[in-house]
Amino acid sequence: MEIDLKKVVAFMQKNAFCFATTEENGNPRVRPFCTCMEYENKLYVIMSETMHPDQKDIRPVWTQVMNNPNIAICTWDETKKWLRITGVVKEDTSIEVKRKMIADNRIMDDFTTNDVSGFQRIFLVDDMKIELRGNCADCCAGDGFCTHDNCKRQKMFFMS
What's the pLDDT tens digit per position in 9-35? Predict the structure, then answer.
């Protein structure tokens, strides 16, 4: 069985997620993100190069992923289920990906495909690893917080 990326993305969209990068000095930087999608069994995130198309100031997150494309994503829900994703982001400029991002994310309602190409950038999370964890007292000994990679209950939530 493989991880169902559509379930992972639905979980991320429902709960929002934290997106971690590295500053030039090597310090970690984390910020909330809310826009992602699954397309052709791949994970995509979106970020803007500047705060607005008319601005010239480059956003720190943009500079950070350009300097070091290694990222981490973490999200969780009220039942203490959580996941961590690590990978390398690579910009995807294909029009199909842009259209899908706009269609899948209501936050993008104000943008057209042309707007996205000049200001919002879409990134594929490549070389992705997903860790699943959570509260599964029904199947694990101890305090109920599972740290077992083979936990059947946790994997069932995200498996196809």
Answer: 988 888 889 999 999 999 999 998 888
Residues in contact with 140: Cβ distance below 8 Å, sequence separation at least 6, in sequence order: 146, 148, 151
Cα dihedral 47, 51, 53, 57 in deg (nearest 10): -110
The domains of the chain, with CATH numbers, are 5-158 (2.30.110.10)
Q: In three state form, how does the secondary structure of 44-81 look?
A: EEEEECECCCCCCCECHHHHHHHHCCEEEEEEECCCCC
Distances in whole angstroms, Cα of residue 53 to Cα of each of 22, 23, 34, 117: 25, 24, 20, 10
Cβ neighbours around 49 below 10 Å, total? 17
Full-model pTM: 0.80
- Give me the pLDDT at residue 44, please: 95
